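step: validate -> pass
step: tokenize input -> pass
step: predict -> running
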Amino acid sequence: MIKLRLKRFGKKREASYRIVAINSRDRRDGRPLEELGFYNPRTDEVRLDVPGIVKRLQQGAQPTDTVRRIFEKANVFEQVRASVTE
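step: predict -> pass
step: emit ->
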């Protein structure tokens, strides 16, 4: 199963995360299938590749709880629904 989850990078106590599509059995910082965004919890900066995320969600990828909350704040699920009805 493909998961959309966070991949940690950065220095100690200054973590940032990449939002990646990765096989659910692979390790957290393993090689992803695709990088779909960036999240910095210290500044709440979020950059998303929305067309790529919509494509992965339509293919059946499952976001983790944290990634789901990030997507809800960015209204990604509304865009998924809009692309399904077209």
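step: describe -> Residues 6 and 73 are 16 Å apart (CA to CA).
step: cleanup -> pass
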